[in-house]
Amino acid sequence: MRIHKEGTGSISLSVCIFIAVNSLLFLCLPSSWWILQYAILLMTLVGMSLVVYFFRIPSRVLAEDDNLILAPCDGKVVVIEEVEPDEYFMEKRLQISVFMSVLNVHVNRNPITGEVVYSQYHPGKHLVAWHPKSSLLNERHTVVLKHKNGQEVLAKQIAGALAKRIVNYLHVGGVATQSEELGFIKFGSRVDLLLPIDTVVNVKLGDCVQSGITPLAKWK
User: Which of the listed CATH numbers 2.120.10.80, 1.10.150.20, 3.30.70.330, 2.70.70.10 matches domain 68-218?
Assistant: First the structure.
């Protein structure tokens, strides 16, 4: 396991807070208050550990298969339905959404290999990620990848109530490789995939998936 580069600032800040808070407590409080001192030490240590844990990248053998559309993030499948897209596509698409809790790995990965034909950041609100309007109203970043078979997949990173920063590494004209990093969302959220309507779905609602490993669907 290693720590993601996006965690450098947050982890450094949490370490500084841990040191500052506990130094002040041990300097300012009388020794007779040792129970409070150690209770706060324990709480701040747990908090700092959770921040480090959030930015972890576990060791995995990532999949690569041109016939499959892989999960773009870790989490739980919360939506599988046909939708009328609000962006890029003009025809009905099949939407699969994966919700990430704060405890999930938050690295986002490319679901397929393909050319990046669209990339757009949208500022917005920070509704809870499972809110039905979150994909329309929340801060989000949308990319579209064009597979060599001509089919296109839209991936939408959506910020949630806690997520205040979306990072996306793709650029129009570049080539995204399946299972490599697409981006990162800090502190919880979801990723929507919009697929061709005839795509064969391999998961069901409530399934837990892993980015770069679990096949969400396959080409017909």
Answer: 2.70.70.10
